[in-house]
Design a protein that fits this description.
The protein has two domains: 52 residues, 434 Repressor (Amino-terminal Domain); 206 residues, Fic-like fold, CATH 1.10.3290. It contains 13 helices and two strands; from the N terminus they run αααααααααααβααβ. The protein has a two-stranded antiparallel sheet with strand order 1-2. It is elongated and about 70 Å long.
Length: 275
Protein backbone atom coordinates (compact mmCIF):
# COMPACT_ATOMS: atom_id res chain seq x y z
CA UNK A 1 0.00 0.00 0.00
CA UNK A 2 1.50 3.34 -1.00
CA UNK A 3 1.16 6.62 0.88
CA UNK A 4 -1.79 7.84 -1.18
CA UNK A 5 -3.69 4.59 -0.71
CA UNK A 6 -3.01 4.51 3.02
CA UNK A 7 -4.10 8.14 3.41
CA UNK A 8 -7.31 7.43 1.53
CA UNK A 9 -8.03 4.19 3.38
CA UNK A 10 -7.40 5.74 6.80
CA UNK A 11 -9.03 9.09 6.10
CA UNK A 12 -5.89 10.90 7.26
CA UNK A 13 -4.12 13.78 5.49
CA UNK A 14 -1.48 12.75 2.96
CA UNK A 15 1.08 14.91 4.80
CA UNK A 16 0.50 13.09 8.10
CA UNK A 17 0.89 9.65 6.56
CA UNK A 18 3.95 10.77 4.59
CA UNK A 19 5.68 12.05 7.72
CA UNK A 20 5.01 8.77 9.52
CA UNK A 21 6.14 6.58 6.64
CA UNK A 22 9.33 8.59 6.16
CA UNK A 23 10.22 8.61 9.86
CA UNK A 24 9.70 12.34 10.36
CA UNK A 25 6.96 11.72 12.92
CA UNK A 26 6.49 9.01 15.57
CA UNK A 27 3.28 7.09 16.16
CA UNK A 28 3.77 7.47 19.90
CA UNK A 29 3.38 11.24 19.51
CA UNK A 30 0.22 11.05 17.40
CA UNK A 31 -3.31 11.35 18.68
CA UNK A 32 -5.20 8.20 19.61
CA UNK A 33 -7.57 8.86 16.69
CA UNK A 34 -4.68 8.91 14.21
CA UNK A 35 -3.21 5.65 15.50
CA UNK A 36 -6.64 4.01 15.53
CA UNK A 37 -7.35 5.03 11.92
CA UNK A 38 -3.99 3.69 10.77
CA UNK A 39 -4.41 0.42 12.64
CA UNK A 40 -7.84 -0.11 11.12
CA UNK A 41 -6.56 0.66 7.62
CA UNK A 42 -3.66 -1.76 8.07
CA UNK A 43 -5.92 -4.46 9.57
CA UNK A 44 -4.02 -4.63 12.86
CA UNK A 45 -4.53 -3.52 16.45
CA UNK A 46 -3.47 -0.24 18.01
CA UNK A 47 -1.21 -2.16 20.38
CA UNK A 48 0.31 -4.16 17.53
CA UNK A 49 1.01 -1.02 15.53
CA UNK A 50 2.68 0.76 18.44
CA UNK A 51 4.71 -2.31 19.40
CA UNK A 52 5.90 -2.70 15.81
CA UNK A 53 7.36 0.81 15.95
CA UNK A 54 9.24 0.28 19.22
CA UNK A 55 11.40 -2.57 17.89
CA UNK A 56 11.47 -4.70 21.06
CA UNK A 57 14.60 -6.56 22.17
CA UNK A 58 12.31 -9.46 23.07
CA UNK A 59 9.80 -10.04 20.26
CA UNK A 60 6.98 -12.48 20.97
CA UNK A 61 7.99 -16.02 19.99
CA UNK A 62 4.57 -17.65 20.36
CA UNK A 63 1.21 -16.54 19.03
CA UNK A 64 -1.39 -18.73 20.70
CA UNK A 65 -5.01 -18.07 21.44
CA UNK A 66 -5.78 -17.53 25.11
CA UNK A 67 -7.45 -20.95 25.28
CA UNK A 68 -4.39 -22.60 23.74
CA UNK A 69 -2.14 -20.86 26.24
CA UNK A 70 -4.37 -21.91 29.15
CA UNK A 71 -4.12 -25.49 27.87
CA UNK A 72 -0.32 -25.12 27.85
CA UNK A 73 -0.34 -23.69 31.38
CA UNK A 74 -2.42 -26.63 32.65
CA UNK A 75 0.10 -29.03 31.10
CA UNK A 76 3.13 -27.30 32.63
CA UNK A 77 1.93 -25.85 35.91
CA UNK A 78 3.32 -28.77 37.93
CA UNK A 79 6.75 -28.06 36.40
CA UNK A 80 6.27 -24.43 37.37
CA UNK A 81 5.52 -25.38 40.97
CA UNK A 82 8.67 -27.51 41.01
CA UNK A 83 10.60 -24.60 39.50
CA UNK A 84 9.42 -22.46 42.40
CA UNK A 85 10.72 -25.04 44.85
CA UNK A 86 14.14 -25.17 43.18
CA UNK A 87 14.28 -21.36 43.18
CA UNK A 88 14.09 -21.58 46.96
CA UNK A 89 16.59 -24.47 47.05
CA UNK A 90 14.04 -26.77 48.65
CA UNK A 91 15.07 -30.40 48.86
CA UNK A 92 12.30 -32.00 46.79
CA UNK A 93 12.38 -33.82 43.48
CA UNK A 94 9.97 -33.34 40.58
CA UNK A 95 8.34 -36.79 41.13
CA UNK A 96 7.82 -35.92 44.81
CA UNK A 97 6.35 -32.54 43.86
CA UNK A 98 3.99 -34.09 41.33
CA UNK A 99 2.88 -36.77 43.79
CA UNK A 100 2.09 -34.15 46.45
CA UNK A 101 0.15 -32.12 43.87
CA UNK A 102 -1.83 -35.28 43.10
CA UNK A 103 -2.88 -35.40 46.77
CA UNK A 104 -0.75 -38.37 47.79
CA UNK A 105 1.44 -38.35 50.89
CA UNK A 106 5.19 -38.63 50.30
CA UNK A 107 7.53 -39.92 52.97
CA UNK A 108 10.79 -38.09 53.50
CA UNK A 109 9.47 -34.64 52.55
CA UNK A 110 9.20 -32.22 55.47
CA UNK A 111 6.02 -30.33 56.26
CA UNK A 112 7.45 -26.93 55.27
CA UNK A 113 8.24 -28.16 51.76
CA UNK A 114 4.79 -29.73 51.43
CA UNK A 115 3.21 -26.43 52.55
CA UNK A 116 5.24 -24.49 49.97
CA UNK A 117 4.16 -26.84 47.18
CA UNK A 118 0.49 -26.65 48.11
CA UNK A 119 0.69 -22.86 48.47
CA UNK A 120 1.99 -22.47 44.93
CA UNK A 121 -0.64 -24.94 43.73
CA UNK A 122 -3.31 -22.67 45.18
CA UNK A 123 -1.77 -19.61 43.52
CA UNK A 124 -1.98 -21.36 40.16
CA UNK A 125 -5.57 -22.42 40.77
CA UNK A 126 -6.42 -18.80 41.54
CA UNK A 127 -4.67 -17.58 38.39
CA UNK A 128 -6.50 -20.03 36.13
CA UNK A 129 -9.83 -19.04 37.69
CA UNK A 130 -9.15 -15.30 37.29
CA UNK A 131 -7.08 -15.20 34.12
CA UNK A 132 -9.11 -12.30 32.69
CA UNK A 133 -8.82 -10.07 35.76
CA UNK A 134 -6.64 -6.97 35.67
CA UNK A 135 -2.97 -7.54 36.44
CA UNK A 136 -2.07 -4.85 38.96
CA UNK A 137 -0.51 -4.55 42.41
CA UNK A 138 -3.67 -5.80 44.11
CA UNK A 139 -3.68 -8.94 41.96
CA UNK A 140 0.03 -9.57 42.56
CA UNK A 141 -0.52 -9.19 46.31
CA UNK A 142 -3.27 -11.79 46.07
CA UNK A 143 -0.86 -14.20 44.36
CA UNK A 144 1.64 -13.66 47.18
CA UNK A 145 -1.09 -14.26 49.77
CA UNK A 146 -1.28 -17.83 48.45
CA UNK A 147 2.41 -18.39 47.76
CA UNK A 148 3.84 -17.10 51.06
CA UNK A 149 0.99 -18.24 53.31
CA UNK A 150 2.36 -19.33 56.70
CA UNK A 151 5.91 -18.98 55.36
CA UNK A 152 6.56 -15.28 56.03
CA UNK A 153 6.12 -12.61 58.67
CA UNK A 154 3.09 -11.49 56.65
CA UNK A 155 1.81 -12.44 53.24
CA UNK A 156 -0.20 -10.65 50.56
CA UNK A 157 0.98 -7.18 51.68
CA UNK A 158 3.98 -5.09 50.69
CA UNK A 159 7.00 -5.44 52.90
CA UNK A 160 7.35 -2.55 55.38
CA UNK A 161 10.77 -3.38 56.83
CA UNK A 162 14.27 -3.92 55.50
CA UNK A 163 15.57 -7.29 54.32
CA UNK A 164 18.86 -8.66 53.07
CA UNK A 165 19.57 -11.17 50.31
CA UNK A 166 22.03 -13.99 50.92
CA UNK A 167 25.10 -13.99 48.72
CA UNK A 168 25.01 -10.26 47.96
CA UNK A 169 25.41 -6.93 49.71
CA UNK A 170 22.38 -5.53 47.89
CA UNK A 171 19.67 -4.32 50.25
CA UNK A 172 16.40 -3.42 48.51
CA UNK A 173 14.61 -0.29 49.64
CA UNK A 174 11.33 -0.56 51.51
CA UNK A 175 8.64 -0.49 48.80
CA UNK A 176 6.23 2.47 48.68
CA UNK A 177 2.76 1.47 47.54
CA UNK A 178 2.11 4.47 45.28
CA UNK A 179 5.43 4.04 43.47
CA UNK A 180 5.03 0.29 43.10
CA UNK A 181 1.51 0.73 41.72
CA UNK A 182 2.79 3.21 39.15
CA UNK A 183 5.76 1.03 38.20
CA UNK A 184 3.60 -2.05 37.67
CA UNK A 185 1.07 -0.06 35.67
CA UNK A 186 3.88 1.29 33.50
CA UNK A 187 5.32 -2.19 32.91
CA UNK A 188 2.09 -4.01 32.04
CA UNK A 189 0.81 -1.21 29.76
CA UNK A 190 4.09 -0.35 28.02
CA UNK A 191 4.17 -0.19 24.22
CA UNK A 192 6.26 -3.34 23.99
CA UNK A 193 5.70 -7.01 23.33
CA UNK A 194 3.87 -9.08 25.93
CA UNK A 195 7.00 -11.22 26.30
CA UNK A 196 9.16 -8.19 27.02
CA UNK A 197 6.65 -6.89 29.57
CA UNK A 198 6.47 -10.29 31.30
CA UNK A 199 10.27 -10.49 31.60
CA UNK A 200 10.44 -6.93 32.94
CA UNK A 201 7.69 -7.67 35.48
CA UNK A 202 9.52 -10.78 36.68
CA UNK A 203 12.75 -8.84 37.17
CA UNK A 204 10.99 -5.90 38.83
CA UNK A 205 9.25 -7.98 41.50
CA UNK A 206 12.35 -10.08 42.13
CA UNK A 207 14.82 -7.19 42.28
CA UNK A 208 12.71 -4.97 44.50
CA UNK A 209 11.71 -7.79 46.88
CA UNK A 210 8.20 -6.39 47.26
CA UNK A 211 7.16 -8.98 49.83
CA UNK A 212 8.58 -10.56 52.98
CA UNK A 213 8.96 -13.90 51.21
CA UNK A 214 8.04 -15.70 48.00
CA UNK A 215 9.16 -12.90 45.67
CA UNK A 216 10.67 -15.08 42.93
CA UNK A 217 7.69 -17.44 42.97
CA UNK A 218 5.22 -14.55 42.93
CA UNK A 219 7.14 -12.94 40.07
CA UNK A 220 7.09 -16.20 38.11
CA UNK A 221 3.33 -16.68 38.41
CA UNK A 222 2.58 -12.99 37.71
CA UNK A 223 4.74 -13.04 34.57
CA UNK A 224 2.91 -16.14 33.38
CA UNK A 225 -0.44 -14.42 33.93
CA UNK A 226 0.63 -11.72 31.48
CA UNK A 227 1.91 -14.26 28.94
CA UNK A 228 -1.21 -16.44 29.11
CA UNK A 229 -3.63 -13.58 28.48
CA UNK A 230 -1.67 -12.55 25.37
CA UNK A 231 -1.07 -16.09 24.13
CA UNK A 232 2.71 -15.70 24.28
CA UNK A 233 3.78 -18.93 25.93
CA UNK A 234 4.87 -20.03 29.36
CA UNK A 235 7.81 -19.13 31.59
CA UNK A 236 9.51 -21.80 33.69
CA UNK A 237 13.13 -22.65 34.47
CA UNK A 238 14.35 -26.18 33.93
CA UNK A 239 16.40 -27.97 36.58
CA UNK A 240 19.53 -28.03 34.41
CA UNK A 241 19.40 -24.24 33.98
CA UNK A 242 18.80 -23.32 37.63
CA UNK A 243 22.49 -22.77 38.47
CA UNK A 244 22.86 -20.30 35.60
CA UNK A 245 19.64 -18.58 36.67
CA UNK A 246 20.96 -18.11 40.21
CA UNK A 247 24.24 -16.68 38.91
CA UNK A 248 22.44 -14.16 36.72
CA UNK A 249 20.03 -13.32 39.54
CA UNK A 250 22.98 -12.50 41.79
CA UNK A 251 24.47 -10.41 38.99
CA UNK A 252 21.23 -8.41 38.78
CA UNK A 253 21.27 -7.79 42.52
CA UNK A 254 24.90 -6.68 42.44
CA UNK A 255 24.74 -4.46 39.34
CA UNK A 256 21.11 -3.32 39.26
CA UNK A 257 20.97 -4.38 35.58
CA UNK A 258 18.60 -7.08 34.37
CA UNK A 259 19.57 -7.42 30.68
CA UNK A 260 21.54 -10.66 31.12
CA UNK A 261 18.81 -12.26 33.21
CA UNK A 262 16.09 -11.30 30.74
CA UNK A 263 18.17 -12.65 27.83
CA UNK A 264 18.59 -15.95 29.71
CA UNK A 265 14.86 -16.20 30.47
CA UNK A 266 14.00 -15.40 26.86
CA UNK A 267 16.35 -17.99 25.39
CA UNK A 268 16.09 -20.83 27.94
CA UNK A 269 12.92 -20.43 30.03
CA UNK A 270 10.20 -19.54 27.52
CA UNK A 271 8.08 -22.36 26.10
CA UNK A 272 5.10 -22.68 23.80
CA UNK A 273 3.04 -25.05 21.68
CA UNK A 274 4.36 -26.07 18.29
CA UNK A 275 1.18 -25.83 16.18
Amino acid sequence: MNISSLAKESGLPYSTVSELVNGKKELGRCSAETVYRLARALDTTVEGLLVSECGSDFPDRYFLTKDQNIFLAKKLWDENVYCGMRMENRNVTFPQTKTILDGVNVTGVNIDDITAILNMRDAWKYLLQTVDEKLDLSYICKLNSFIARNEALEWGVLRYGRVGISGTDYKPAVPVAEKVEGDIRRIVSAYDTATSRALELFCYITYNQLFWDGNKRTALVAANKLLIVKGCGFLTIKDQDMAEFNELLEDMYNTGKNDKLKRFLYSKALFGLEL
